[in-house]
From TrEMBL:
A GO molecular-function annotation: GTPase activity
GO cellular component: membrane
Originating species: Brevibacillus gelatini
Phylogenetic lineage: Bacteria, Bacillati, Bacillota, Bacilli, Bacillales
Record's keyword terms, sorted: Coiled coil, GTP-binding, Hydrolase, Membrane, Nucleotide-binding
SUPFAM superfamilies on file: P-loop containing nucleoside triphosphate hydrolases
Residue ranges constituting the Dynamin N-terminal domain according to the UniProt record: 53-206
Subcellular location: Membrane
Protein name as annotated: Dynamin family protein
One GO term of the biological process aspect: mitochondrial fusion
Keyword RNA-binding: no
Length: 546
């Protein structure tokens, strides 16, 4: 016993109360008009470490009768007098009854002699905010109260609101039911909500004097009650079966129930410390929910905009799918943009290596070139004096021989491969054009006598000079092929660029839609983030206040 008392940290109630006021302030700054008031009430109650035991349940379950019995005084009006529409709070203290009105007025009267007034005020839900009775000599001390709440199932909204608005101040809920109405769905709904909110809930099945044993034995009845709540996954902190009309009923657990209340009152500080924290947590949640409700319109607007944007095979509501699709489309766009440049570079590289690898000069070429160059030297003569015609014929013959030599090598080692390469460039990009192919195949690089003559340089006809001459001619031929090839490449690039433009126009349109979707998702996410931030900020205030 001592050990457990040592372990329980004493609560600094005034510090906690201050924290609730800070929370209220933060929420009020957010424009919340309901939750801050509840937190201020909670702060007031916390400062006094006040215990509230709320009696809830269907009207006529016997709540008021039970409270009167517990107090040993007939304070509360009971049926058939109309049930109270307001929460009536009773605590220990000097004998007094106060009625708090909506306008902030307080009317006091004597609870012993002026009960009719209380009855009158207690039924008037419109103007009365709450009724508070203090009474000495009962099981209640100044810091412990019993709350008599209106029936929770009431169709009258005022009753419902009165009960709802008192719940954040209830540390323990006594849920009373009429023996015959235990299986009513409202019982399960209400107690489940309470348990989900972390409230201790004790069930009281009252009026067990209505039980007729030969129909069903009492044990079976109790089992059926417990089973019904268990089926709803509701685990009450205790169940009591009572009769107020027949105190001597053999199954009456009124005494045990009263004992339980005494225990709760004795453990007040610990109970209140725990309960106000969970009430504050709940109010934070309530605030976040109200923030969510205030975002609902904007959220719906964003979502319907998303629904109006359509792209094939994409769920526009799926934020992840949208951002993945956008990233993919942008990457494709980049690839598309660089594809033309890449294709050009590749084609130029292929042409370059084809030309580099084409061998145009052989031993026979050098021989023919040496012979040709010799015939071009000044003073070259064939036959006797004045045999100019013969010399000219010999020159022509040697020129033809060298031309034939180069033409053969070009035809075999260059021209064929060149045409094959150029021809396949369009096909490689899936473009079909017979006319282009025809032009490629019609390409003719003429090697003429003037061409050969153009590369002759002055100087001795050494072996090295002959080789250089051959290389010059070969390079000049290759240069002609390169020019022709670059013209074809330019044409292919032009075709690719215009196709790319068409494709990118479609792609750009898609990217535009995806960006719009992504921005709507961003706005939705920022709403959620602001709700989360609010929750975290309030929770941080709460942690710091511990
Ligand atoms: N038979 C029987 N009647 C009861 C019992 N407890 C209360 N009542 C009666 O049930 C009616 C409703 O009780 P009341 O306390 O006003 O219910 P409330 O609306 O929950 O406050 C009154 O007429 C009570 O006298 C009980 O244990 N057995
Ligand atoms: Mg009542």
């Amino acid at each position: 016993m001592l050990d457990s008392q040592v372990l329980v940290r004493e609560t600094d109630f005034s510090k906690l109360a201050h924290t609730w006021e800070e929370l209220a302030q933060a929420m009020a700054e957010q424009g919340d008009t309901t939750t801050p008031a509840k937190l201020k009430q909670l702060a007031e109650k916390t400062r006094r470490a006040e215990l509230n035991i709320a009696f809830c349940g269907h009207f006529s379950a016997g709540k008021s009768t039970m409270i009167n019995t517990l107090l040993g005084v007939s304070l509360l009006p009971s049926n058939p007098i109309p049930t109270s529409a307001n929460v009536v709070k009773i605590r220990g203290g000097e004998k007094a009854a106060r009625v708090y009105t909506m306008n902030g007025d307080v009317v006091t009267f004597d609870p012993d002699t002026e009960m009719e007034k209380l009855k009158q005020f207690a039924v008037d839900g419109d103007t009365v905010e709450s009724v508070e009775v203090t009474y000495p000599g009962t099981l209640l001390d100044e810091h412990s109260s019993l709350l008599d709440t209106p029936g929770i199932d009431s169709t009258d909204a005022a009753h419902k609101i009165a009960t709802e608005s008192a719940l954040h101040l209830a540390d323990v809920v006594i849920y009373m039911m009429d023996y015959n109405h235990v299986q009513a769905e409202e019982n399960f709904n209400f107690t489940k909500t309470l348990k989900d909110r972390g409230k201790p809930v004790y069930l009281v099945v009252n009026m067990i004097d209505k039980h007729i044993d030969f129909e069903l034995d009492f044990e079976s009845y109790k089992e059926s009650v417990e089973e019904a709540f268990a089926n709803w996954n509701i685990h009450p902190d205790g169940i009591f079966y009572t009769s107020l009309a027949e105190p001597d009923h053999p199954e009456n657990q009124y005494a045990e129930f009263r004992q339980k209340l005494l225990e709760l009152i004795a453990g007040r500080e610990q109970l209140v410390g725990k309960s106000v924290r969970s009430a504050a947590e709940h109010l934070i949640e309530e605030h976040v929910q109200s923030l969510k409700r205030s975002h609902a319109g904007k959220r719906q607007e964003l979502e319907s905009k998303l629904d109006s944007l359509e792209l094939a095979e994409l769920d526009s509501r799926d934020a992840q799918a949208v951002s993945a699709a956008l990233a993919q489309a942008e990457a494709q766009m980049e690839a598309l943009k660089s594809s033309t440049a890449q294709a050009r570079a590749q084609m130029e590289k292929d042409l370059g290596s084809l030309l580099d690898n084409a061998r145009l000069t052989y031993y026979s070429t050098n021989e023919a070139a040496a012979s040709y160059l010799e015939s071009r030297k000044p003073g070259f003569k064939m036959g006797f004096l004045f045999a100019g015609k013969k010399t000219e014929e010999e020159r022509k013959r040697r020129e033809e021989a060298l031309l034939a030599e180069f033409r053969e090598k070009v035809a075999g080692n260059l021209d064929f491969h060149f045409k094959e390469l150029m021809s396949k460039q369009l096909q490689a990009h899936d473009i079909r054009d017979e006319e282009y192919h025809a032009r490629v195949h019609a390409t003719q690089i003429e090697i003429t006598g003037e061409f050969l003559a153009k590369h002759i340089k002055d100087g001795a006809a050494s072996r090295e000079y002959v080789m250089n001459y051959c290389t010059d001619v070969a390079n000049a031929i290759k240069l002609e092929y390169r020019r022709a090839g670059l013209a074809f490449i330019e044409e292919v690039v032009g075709r690719l660029a215009s196709r790319m433009e068409q494709e990118s126009a479609a792609q750009l349109e898609r990217i535009g839609i995806l960006r719009e979707m992504a921005s709507l998702h961003e706005q939705l996410a920022s709403l959620t983030a602001s709700e989360e931030n609010t929750r975290e900020r309030l929770q941080a205030i709460m942690r710091e206040g511990e």
